[in-house]
Amino acid sequence: MDGKTLRGSGPAGSQVHLLAVLDQHTGAVLGQVDVAGKTNELTRFQPLLTPLDLTAVVVTADALHTQREHARWLVDDKKAGYLFTVKKNQPRLYHQLKTLPWAKIPTQDETSTRGHGRYDIRRLQAVTCTPALALDFPHAVQALRIRRRRMNLATGRWSTVTVYAITNLTTTQASPADLADWLRGHWAIETLHHIRDTTYAEDASRIRTGNAPRVMATLRNTAISLLRLTGTTTTIAAALRHNSRNPYRPLQLLGIT
């Protein structure tokens, strides 16, 4: 899950902000709620996820949602798993993770990718929490460190980014490879927002009247989800061009012949 502001929906301070939840496996949007001006994403976390059956589902979210009440609610009420990144908005927890004896913990998963002008190497370490390594977070069972080394293929220069994460899943419930895949898979919702901006020009839209910005965002989500669920193997932009050439093709996506 992740939030997005519709930049063209109003002047600064009154722009529409939406929080969405997406299925990593299908790329389909499962729900979206409005984050009103007098509230924030934290208060909309539970209303967004409440209608969904999350039993045995793993929820990923960015560091903003690494909150104790979210973790308790997911595990105790929804019977779900969580995999949260940890940053300095949780200073005590971040310090605990950073000072774990990572030098003594072997790398359990390593992947490399090349594309978009860069070469990435990702290494994941995981450690099970024991009484001696107890974390200040509800239901936390494993602590993770992900180190990403990136080479800019144009300059040949390397950079390193370290990310910490926590989960309530045991080693028998999720392997290091699973955890690495789910953390990378979280970027699927960032990809959704990128598509809405670049392919649908969402941020350039000047629609501001009433609920129209929210409705248009929902329609964009629906179109992208439908294309993904029906097996689009090209980019969303290419799929839109393909369907625009024949007025019957969009109807066929809906099963209408």
Give me some keywords for this one.
globular; 257 residues; alpha+beta
Describe this structure in words.
By secondary structure, the protein is α+β, with helices and mostly antiparallel strands. The protein has 8 helices and 9 strands. Strands 4-5-9-8-7-6 form a 6-stranded mixed sheet, sandwiched between helices. A 3-stranded antiparallel sheet has the order 1-2-3, with helices on both faces. Strand 2 and strand 3 form a beta hairpin. The mean pLDDT is 92.
Give a quick account of the main beta sheet: strands, pairing sense, barrel closure: 6 strands, mixed
On the 0 to 100 scale, the average pLDDT is: 92
Helix share, percent = 25-40%
Give the termini separation: 35 Å
Spell the H/E element sequence: EEEHEHEHEEEEHHHHH
Q: What is the 3D form?
A: globular
- The number of E-state strands comes to 9
